[in-house]
Automatic annotation (TrEMBL), chain A:
CC annotations in GO: cytosol
InterPro entries: ETF_a/b_N, ETF_b, ETF_beta_N, Rossmann-like_a/b/a_fold
Originating species: Bailinhaonella thermotolerans
Function statement: The electron transfer flavoprotein serves as a specific electron acceptor for other dehydrogenases. It transfers the electrons to the main respiratory chain via ETF-ubiquinone oxidoreductase (ETF dehydrogenase).
UniProt xrefs under Pfam families: ETF
Record SUPFAM superfamilies: Adenine nucleotide alpha hydrolases-like
Keywords, ordered alphabetically: Electron transport, Transport
Cofactors (names): FAD
Name of the protein in question: Electron transfer flavoprotein subunit beta
Residue ranges occupied by any Electron transfer flavoprotein alpha/beta-subunit N-terminal domain in the UniProt entry: 23-212
From TrEMBL, chain B:
Designated name of the protein: Acyl-CoA dehydrogenase
Family designation: Belongs to the acyl-CoA dehydrogenase family.
Domain Acyl-CoA oxidase/dehydrogenase middle per the UniProt entry, residue ranges: 123-220
Residue ranges of every copy of the Acyl-CoA dehydrogenase/oxidase C-terminal domain listed in the record: 232-380
Organism the protein comes from: Bailinhaonella thermotolerans
TM region positions: none
Cofactor: FAD
Record's keyword terms, sorted: FAD, Flavoprotein, Oxidoreductase
Length: 259, 382
C-alpha cells in the first residue's frame, strides 16, 4: 500500500511566536521549527497501517529548507522516504493554494491513502484535508480516532461531540486524524541514524508542475489585514468569603452565563 | 580543531530524549518518588526507544551509538528524574557494559541482546557491607567445585538488583590468592538462581524510584564458564568500568544541576515578593547565574572526558574531574534551588525538593568525592 503522510513544520508553541510586520506571514525564523504535534499522530497511524498491511510510507511536506528537520523526524520514526516541496514562490500561500500545491505533488507521486493531522498549531485552519480530498477527487474521512483498512475499503471512527460516526469509503482516500487516535512512538537512535540515509526528494514548483501564478502571497485568496499582540491576561476576580462567599460565586457564574 | 557542537544525529537523539523526559518521565516523577516504586512502564518505554542499547553495536541488539550518546540520554532523563536516569546508567554502564567489554563472544551473544533491548536488566555487585571504595577488601568468595563456581557473600547498595526484570548480576569475588594478595574475579550470576537472595528495600534519602538492594549469595552455583574476563582480572576490569561510569554519573549530575536552574528561572519570574518578581533581585539572579555556570561547566567537563575516552586516549583524570565537579555542582545547585523556592522548596510536591534529596548520593556513588580527589592527585604524580 502506498501511504503518504503530510506533515508540517510549525513554530514551537512553547516559544513566543510572531508574525512578520512586513508581509504579515508567520515569522518562521523567530522561533524554532518543530513538527506540528498532530502530524506525529498522523505519522504513527501511517506506520501502523504499513505494519498491518505492508507497503511504503512517504512523508510529504511543503515548507522552507529548514523543514528538513521535520522530515528527518518523521523518517526517524520509521517512514521510508520523503518528498519536500520547497520553493520561494510558495511563500505566503494560504490554505487553498497549499491544497492545490500538495495535490499536484500527490497526483505526481500517487497514493492509496493520504493521512494528515486535523489542523496545524500555527494557522489553525483545519481545512486542508477537505480541500485536498476535493482537489484529488477522493473521499474525505475526517477527524478519525480509529482507522481500519480491509482490502480496498477504509473505515474510520469520526470523533464527534456526541460520540463517533462510523464512516466508510473506498480507496484511494484522504484521512485526517485527531490526537485520540494513538500514542506516537519516540524515534530510536537506530531510527535517527537510518533516517540520514533515507531518500528525500526535493521538488520545486516547476518540478511538481505547479502554476507559480496560482501560489504565493500575491495571489492568495485570503489576506491578513491587520494583527495585534494579544493583551496580557487580566487579573482574576478574588471573592472574599465574609459569610456570603457562595452567593457571590454563584452570582459571578450567573453573570457569565455559566449557570 | 575544537568543536563542541553535537552532530545532527546526536542532537536529534538529545531532543528526542528531552521530549520523552518532559512528556512521560517528569509528570510522574513525584508520584513514583512518593510511592518509592520502580517505574516499570517508563523503563519499558525507554527500552522501546532503544536507550538500553545505545552504546552497543547492532550485531548485539544495540543501537550502534557510543558511550557519549548514552551520556546525553542520561543527562536529559536526569533533568526530569534522577531515579529513571540512574536505572539506565546502572543497567547499561554497570550491568551490560562489562559483558560487552570483557565477555567472550558466546557470553556477549547470550546476554547482550536481552540487556540491550531492555527486556532484561543487569546489575553489578562490587560494594560490600565492609568495603565500598576499598574494592580490594572484597570478602565474597567463589570456589571452583568441579565445573561450577560456588559463591558465598553479601553485596550492598546494588542498583537494579531486585526488579522483576533483573536477569543478571555480575559479582566480584575472591577466587584465590597469589603472592599473598587476593585474586579477584568477576562471575556472572543469572537471576533467579538458587541461593541468590534480595533483601528488602533500603530506606533511602533519595533515588526513591530506583531499585537498590542488599543481595546475598549462599552456596550459589553457576557454571565455570560464567567467569567474566580472565581469572584474577576482576578488580582491574571493574576499575576500568568505573572510570567510564564516572562520565555517565557526571552526565546525570549535569542533568540534575540543569534541572535546578530551569526550575529556578521559571520560579524567579513567577514568584513575587515586595511587589516584584524575586528574580529581579540580584541576590536571587546572581545565585541562578552561578548555578547556570556550574551546570555549564559540568557539561563541558563530561563532554571532554567522553571525547578522550572515545578517542582511545587516557581519560582517568578527566573522568574523575567531571564526576567530582558535576556532583558537587549538583549538590550546590539543589541546595540553592531549594533556598530560592523558600518554604515550597521543602515541599515534596516541588521538583527541587526531590532534586535536593536525589543530589547527595552523587558525591558518594561510583567513587566518593574523596576518591576522585585521590585519583586526580595520583594522576598528578602525588
Amino acid at each position: 500500500m502506498n501511504i503518504v503522510v503530510c506533515v508540517k513544520q510549525v513554530p514551537d508553541t512553547a516559544t513566543e511566536r510572531k508574525l512578520r510586520p512586513d508581509d504579515k506571514t508567520i515569522d518562521r525564523e523567530a522561533a524554532e521549527g518543530v513538527i506540528n504535534e498532530i502530524c506525529e499522530y498522523a505519522v504513527e497511524e501511517a506506520l501502523r497501517l504499513k505494519e498491518a498491511h505492508g507497503g511504503e510510507v512517504t512523508v510529504l511536506t511543503m515548507g522552507p529548507s529548514k523543514a528538513t528537520d521535520t522530515i528527518r523526524k518523521a523518517l526517524a520514526m520509521g517512514a521510508d522516504k520523503a518528498v519536500h516541496l520547497v520553493d520561494d514562490a510558495l511563500h505566503g500561500s494560504d490554505g487553498l493554494q497549499t491544497s492545490y500545491a500538495l495535490a499536484q505533488v500527490l497526483k505526481k507521486i500517487g497514493f492509496d491513502v493520504v493521512i494528515l493531522g486535523s489542523e496545524s498549531t500555527d494557522a489553525r485552519m483545519g481545512t486542508l484535508a477537505a480541500m485536498l480530498a476535493e482537489r484529488l477527487d477522493a473521499p474525505q474521512l475526517s477527524l478519525a480516532n480509529k482507522v481500519e483498512i480491509d482490502g480496498s475499503t477504509i473505515r474510520i471512527q469520526r470523533l464527534t461531540d456526541y460520540g463517533f460516526d462510523r464512516v466508510e469509503a473506498s480507496l484511494p482516500a484522504v484521512v485526517s486524524v485527531v490526537e485520540k487516535i494513538n500514542e506516537p512512538r519516540y524515534p530510536s537512535f537506530k531510527g535517527i541514524m537510518a533516517a540520514k540515509k533515507k531518500p528525500v526528494e526535493t521538488l520545486s514548483v516547476a518540478d511538481a508542475e505547479i502554476d507559480a501564478a496560482k501560489v504565493g502571497l500575491a495571489s492568495a485568496a485570503t489576506e491578513v489585514v491587520d494583527f495585534a499582540v494579544a493583551p496580557p491576561r487580566a487579573a482574576g476576580t478574588i471573592v472574599k468569603d465574609e459569610g456570603d462567599g457562595g452567593v457571590k460565586v454563584a452570582e459571578f457564574l450567573a453573570s457569565k452565563k455559566f449557570v | 580543531m575544537l568543536d563542541y557542537r553535537l552532530s545532527d544525529e546526536l542532537e536529534a537523539l538529545r531532543k528526542t530524549v528531552e521530549q520523552f523526559a518532559r512528556e512521560v518521565v517528569a509528570p510522574r516523577a513525584a508520584e513514583y518518588d512518593e510511592r518509592k516504586e520502580f517505574p516499570y512502564d517508563i523503563v519499558r518505554q525507554m527500552a522501546e526507544m532503544g536507550l538500553f542499547g545505545l552504546p552497543f553495536p547492532e550485531e548485539y541488539g544495540g543501537m550502534g551509538g557510543d558511550y557519549f550518546a548514552l551520556c546525553l540520554a542520561i543527562e536529559e532523563l536526569a533533568r526530569a528524574d534522577s531515579s529513571v536516569a540512574i536505572t539506565l546508567e546502572a543497567g547499561v554502564s554497570l550491568g551490560a557494559m562489562p559483558v560487552y567489554r570483557f565477555g567472550t563472544e558466546e557470553q556477549r551473544r547470550e546476554w547482550l541482546p536481552r540487556l540491550a533491548s531492555g527486556e532484561a536488566l543487569g546489575a553489578f555487585g562490587l560494594t560490600e557491607p565492609g568495603g565500598g571504595s576499598d574494592a580490594g577488601a572484597t570478602a565474597t568468595r567463589a570456589v571452583l567445585d568441579g565445573d561450577e563456581w560456588v559463591i558465598n557473600g553479601t553485596k550492598s547498595f546494588i542498583t537494579n538488583s531486585g526488579t522483576n526484570i533483573t536477569r543478571l548480576v555480575t559479582v566480584t569475588a575472591v577466587t584465590g590468592e597469589s603472592d599473598g594478595r587476593k585474586e579477584i574475579s568477576s562471575i556472572m550470576v543469572p537471576v533467579p538462581t538458587e541461593g541468590f537472595a534480595v533483601a528488602k528495600d533500603y530506606s533511602k534519602v533519595g533515588w526513591h524510584a530506583s531499585d537498590t538492594h542488599e543481595i546475598t549469595f549462599t552456596d550459589v552455583r553457576v557454571p565455570s564458564a560464567n567467569l567474566l574476563g580472565r581469572r584474577g582480572r576482576g578488580y582491574a576490569n571493574f576499575l576500568s568500568i568505573l572510570d567510564e561510569g564516572r562520565i555517565a554519573i557526571a552526565a546525570l549530575a549535569t542533568g540534575l544541576a540543569q534541572a535546578c536552574v530551569d526550575e529556578c528561572v521559571k520560579y524567579a519570574k513567577e514568584r513575587h515578593a515586595f511587589g516584584r518578581p524575586i528574580g529581579s533581585n540580584q541576590a536571587i539572579a546572581f545565585k541562578i547565574a552561578d548555578m547556570e555556570m556550574k551546570a555549564h561547566m559540568s557539561r563541558l567537563a563530561y563532554y571532554r572526558a567522553a571525547e578522550k575516552m572515545l578517542r582511545g586516549e587516557p581519560f582517568k583524570k578527566e573522568a574523575a574531574i567531571a564526576k567530582l565537579y558535576s556532583s558537587e555542582a549538583a549538590v550546590d545547585n539543589a541546595r540553592e534551588a531549594t533556598q530560592i523556592h523558600g518554604g515550597y522548596g521543602f515541599m515534596n510536591e516541588f521538583p527541587v525538593a526531590r532534586h535536593w534529596r536525589d543530589s547527595k548520593i552523587l558525591e558518594i556513588g561510583e567513587g566518593t568525592s574523596e576518591v576522585q580527589r585521590m585519583l586526580i592527585a595520583r594522576e598528578l604524580g602525588l
